[in-house]
Each structure stands twice: as structure tokens, then as C-alpha cells.
Amino acid sequence: MPFRTILLNGKEVTAEYQAIGSGASESSEILLYWLREQFGQHGPRFGCGLAQCGACTVLVDDVPTRSCVVQLHTVEDLAEVRTLDGLSHDEKDPHPLQREFVELQAGQCGFCINGMIMGSLGWIEGRIAGGDRSVPSEDEVKAFLSGAAPGNTRNYICRCGTHTRIVAAIRSAAEEMAR
């Protein structure tokens, strides 16, 4: 079986993965399952399996990525993969997005929270890296979450109805992150 080495939440890790075929016909284990089963990363969740809901979102080289459809052989060796599990190494000092989601009670069932936080993290960090340190407006956050924002074609689905608190949590965390 082949191996893949990545930088998982800042730590270099290596594990085997299942692969079938080779060349253009190669297929392999899905990144989501590999992260959960090999490394105990339970933040990313299996939702739809079609890259449509966002529950499985992780950052791969700072890009929000739907891990439920990414075959592991397509992930570059030493790619940086960040998951919700690695955002904070200390419960007393959570990442601003984690803290705001808890303080504003933005999660009801909690199933979508991984995608909301990781997708928003990649989006906000991308804005900041591009020189935009402004706090996104409510409409910008809603456009991001719906997949209508420039450069974002992926939506994030929440069925519980905490949308206003999710938007508020993202905006509040963005304010802190942009400082």
C-alpha cells in the first residue's frame, strides 16, 4: 500500500492509504476517511458525500476543501492540512471562530459547525492575506455561506436555523482576526 505524508495541524504525519489502479485510472481512499481513521480527526464530518453541504471541510494549503470527495493520491506530499481539531491546542484559549460560535450559540445540532468554521477560516485568512482587513458585512458573510461570493462556488448548509447567529459569530471573529 502507498503512503502519504502531510503536515496535519502543523505536525508531519505519515500513514498508508488504499489505492486502486495507476496513472489516469488511479483512485484512492478519500481524504476525510483517512483523516478520521488514521489520525482521529473528528471535526470534519461525513454529511452528503457529494461536496455539497460543507460538513467535511478542511483547509488544504489554506484552501477550503471538501474532504469527502478528495482522493488521497491527489493530495501533494507535505501538503498542509488543517482541521477543526487542530485550531486550538488549549481549551482555555480557543480560536476566535470557535470562541464566537460557542459564545453566540451559533450551533444547535453542531453537525455543520466544522464546515462553517473551517470554510470561514480559509475565507477570512484569504481576505487578510490579500490585504483586505475589513470586517465582512452581513451580506458578504451570507454570500460566502451561500456560495455566491466572488471566488467561492461552494455553499455551507445548516438545517437548524441558527443562520443569524452563525453570521454574527463569523463577523465577530473576523473583527478579532483582522486586528
TrEMBL record:
InterPro entries: 2Fe-2S-bd, 2Fe-2S-bd_dom_sf, 2Fe-2S_ferredoxin-like_sf, 2Fe2S_fd_BS, Beta-grasp_dom_sf, Diverse_Oxidoreductases
Keywords assigned by UniProt, alphabetized: 2Fe-2S, Iron, Iron-sulfur, Metal-binding
GO molecular function terms listed in the Swiss-Prot or TrEMBL record: 2 iron, 2 sulfur cluster binding; metal ion binding; oxidoreductase activity
Keyword Nucleotide-binding assigned: no
Gene3D superfamilies in UniProt: 3.10.20.30, [2Fe-2S]-binding domain
[2Fe-2S]-binding domain mapped to chain residues: 83-171
Protein name as annotated: Oxidoreductase
